[in-house]
Amino acid sequence: TTSASPHGAGGAGMEGSACLQLLLQRCREAKDCAYCPYSRFPVGAALLTAGGEIFSGCNVENACYSLGVCAERTAIQKAISEGHTRFRAMAIASDMSDFITPCGACRQVMREFGTDWDLYLTKPDGTYIVKKLHELLPLSFGPEDLQK
């Protein structure tokens, strides 16, 4: 993990901050660790916790395709295993010339931990767009729905 100074919870609060730059750097570094001999589609993710720590993850494929895991879920699982369950943002990097978004399974795993956190979708040239999780998974089902 890497600690970052907290600079506001929303995308607007992080724009141009050292925390955001570190988050973007860490997702690019994680991408370089991807194990993807079958798809040749490396992805890296970096997850910012509410406490300001950053957990990174990469995709890890398997010859039995269904046993692979995405970068986003790897980062979340690392954070959870260290006791973190509140998140502020995630940055995602690939080698694609366009922005990529998390798959449906990753969106649902993210949803377990709220809908109002920022996703920084990046391109290799350093540009990015910011989306809230609820924009990528509208009308979602979460833990609070089990209480109804």
TrEMBL record:
Q: Which Pfam families match?
A: dCMP_cyt_deam_1
Question: Per its record, what are the GO molecular function terms?
Answer: cytidine deaminase activity; identical protein binding; zinc ion binding
Q: What class of enzyme is it?
A: hydrolase
Catalytic machinery residues: E72 (proton donor)
In which residues is Zn(2+) bound? C70, C103, C106
Q: Specify the CMP/dCMP-type deaminase domain's residue ranges.
A: 18-144
Name the InterPro entries for this protein: APOBEC/CMP_deaminase_Zn-bd (IPR016192), CMP_dCMP_dom (IPR002125), Cyt/Deoxycyt_deaminase (IPR050202), Cyt_deam_tetra (IPR006262), Cytidine_deaminase-like (IPR016193)
Residues in a coiled coil are none
According to its UniProt entry, one GO biological process term is: pyrimidine-containing compound metabolic process
SUPFAM superfamilies reported for this sequence:
Cytidine deaminase-like
Q: Which key words tag this protein in UniProt?
A: Hydrolase, Metal-binding, Zinc
Q: Which reactions appear under catalytic activity for this entry?
A: 2'-deoxycytidine + H2O + H(+) = 2'-deoxyuridine + NH4(+); cytidine + H2O + H(+) = uridine + NH4(+)
Would you tell me the Gene Ontology cellular component terms?
cytosol
EC number from the UniProt entry: 3.5.4.5
**What is the role of this chain?**
This enzyme scavenges exogenous and endogenous cytidine and 2'-deoxycytidine for UMP synthesis.
Which NCBIfam families does this entry report, sorted A to Z? cyt_deam_tetra (TIGR01354), PRK05578.1 (NF004064)
Q: What is this protein called?
A: Cytidine deaminase
What is the gene name?
A: Cda
